[in-house]
Specification:
Structural class: mainly alpha
Number of domains: 1
Number of helices: 14
Radius of gyration: 19 Å
Number of strands: 0
Order of helices and strands: HHHHHHHHHHHHHH
Largest sheet: none
Helix content: over 70%
Length: 307
Amino acid sequence: MVMINYFFMCLIFGTTFLAIKVGVDAGVPPFLSAGLRFLIAGLLLFSFMVWRKKTTIRLLFRKEMFFTGMGLTFGTFATLYWAEQYVTSGIAAVLSATGPMMIIVIQTFILKQKGDRKSFIGCVVGVIGIMFLILPSFAFEISPFWMVGCFAIILGEVFYASGTIYTKYVIQKFGTTSPIALNAAQMMYGGILLIFLSLLTENIQLQHLLSPASIGSLFYLIIFGSMIGHSIYYWLVSRTNPVFPSTWLYISPVIAVILGVTFYHEYISWLTGIGTLTIIVGTILVNFDTLKELLWRKRTVLQDVKE
C-alpha cells in the first residue's frame, strides 16, 4: 500500500508544476492562486472529516496546525508560485528537488541526528540526474528576476524541509487524529496566510480569475494537487519517514518528460535518458533502507500466510 500511494502521489505531483505555470501565465496573482487552492482544498477536506466524525473543530485552534501550515504550505508555495512568473516549470522542478537534501542537512547538522550516507549520496545523484534531464531544454536569459526566483524556490525548500520534519512530530503527538484531518487543517492555515499576503501585495483583477485556464488550473490543483496529493503525502510521512515521501521531487521531472514526449511530441535526447536512469538510481539510494524494510515486511507476511 505504501509503494502504491507513493507512485500515485508522484504521478499527481509530477503535473502540478505545469498546472501552476498555466494559472500564473493566465494572469492570476500567484499568492492569491496558491491561497485559494489550499484554503478551498483544506476547507472541503476538513468539513468532510468533521462530517465523518474523524476530527473536531477544536483541531483548528491548535498552534501546531499554524506552524505546520507556515512551513509546509505558506513558505513553500508562496516562493514557488511567485518564482514561476520568472522561472520555467522545468527549472522550478530542478530547484525544488533540493528538498530531500535539505531535510537530511537539517536532521544532521541542526537536529544532530545520525546521518545516513546512502541517503545523502542518493540526494546528490538525484539532483545530478535532474540536471541531465532538463539540460537539452536549457534556453533562458539570466536576469535579476530569474536569479531571485531561483533563490526564492531554494528558500521555499528550507520551509518545506522544516515543515516536513515538524509534520512527523505533529503526527506522533496527535496519534489518534487522522493524517488527512491534520493535512486539511494545515492547508487552511497556509491558504489564509497566502490570501492575506495577496491582499497586501497584489493587484487582484476578477477577469483573470474567471478565464478557462485559471479555472482549470485551480480546479486541478485543488482536487488532485492538494486534496488527494497532499493527503497521500501526509499519510506517507506518518507511515515512513520525512525523507521517503519527499523524493517525489526527483520523480516529477521524469513524469514531465514522459508527458511531453507522449502528448506534445517533445524532443528526447540521450542526455534525457541518462538523467532518467540517474534519477532512478538516486531515488533507490535515498529510499534503500525504507524499501528494504517494506520488502522484508511483505516477505514476512507472505511467509506467515503460507504457514
